[in-house]
Amino acid sequence: MREVIISYILPLLFLLLAAAETHAHNVTLLLANHPSLSSFNHYLTQTHLADEINRRTPVTVCAVDNAAMSALTSRGYTISTLRNILSLHVLLDYFGAEKLHQLRDGSALAPTLFQATGAAPGTTGIANITDLIGVKFGSGFVNLTDLTGGKVGFGSEDGGIVSFYVKSIEAVPYTISIIQISSILLSE
Ligand SMILES: *[C@@H]1O[C@H](CO)[C@@H](O)[C@H](O)[C@H]1NC(C)=O
Ligand SMILES: *[C@@H]1O[C@H](CO)[C@@H](O)[C@H](O)[C@H]1NC(C)=O
Questions:
Q1: Hey, which of 21, 23, 26 would you mutate to test ligand 1's pocket, going by the most ligand atoms within 8 Å of its Cβ?
Q2: Which residue(s) pair with 90 in the sheet?
Q3: How far apart are the C-alpha atoms of 38 and 87, rounded to whole Å?
Q4: DSSP string, 127-179
Q5: Residue 54 in contact with ligand 1 by CB distance below 6 A
Q6: Closest by Cα among 187, 131, 123 to 155
Q7: 173 ligand 2 Cβ < 6 A
Q8: What is the pLDDT of residues 112-142, one digit of tens each?
Q9: pTM to 2 decimals?
């Protein structure tokens, strides 16, 4: 049995791992097919969040169109603040169109990259981001709510809904889902 494992099963395992490695996702390339999301894509590269996203599985990226991005970039934030804000738009779970419309109990809290990589509180961390964007992201979770009429709302854990699901952009089931939402998760 031991011989079988070493001579047959182990090599097979390595082959499978190698195959998985070569099929790693690249969010920059996936978004490159969508010119209306080019500014969002640009800032994922500028903030180095693209590398972080490419390392994560499963992951859901909540992208916004160029108009919504320019509303954000016109605020004059530093690149590190932009990184913190955009990291709230990277959910560490797989949410395809189907799952968004079938949330158990009608809503869910999704962990984000902000929690995983956010700066220490007091610098450009959670407290300051909350002040800046006017939405409480105390714990860094995003609240997804399945609304009536097939709409899905996005907001902070306790700050209400500030953005809505628009459509699915790219989906590699259970690896990476890129969806479009109507606006950045900021309050008006
Ligand atoms: C992803 O694609 C971009 C654009 O082609 C490239 O610059 C980058 O090196 C790629 N990243 C990885 C991890 O392959
Ligand atoms: C998500 O937000 C909605 C609307 O504000 C709220 O009714 C719901 O209880 C929240 N869900 C969770 C899991 O916190």
A1: 26
A2: 61
A3: 17
A4: HHHHHHHSS--TT--EEEEE-GGG-EEEEESSS-EEEEEEEEEEEETTTEEEE
A5: yes
A6: 187
A7: no
A8: 998 777 554 445 555 566 666 666 666 678 9
A9: 0.85
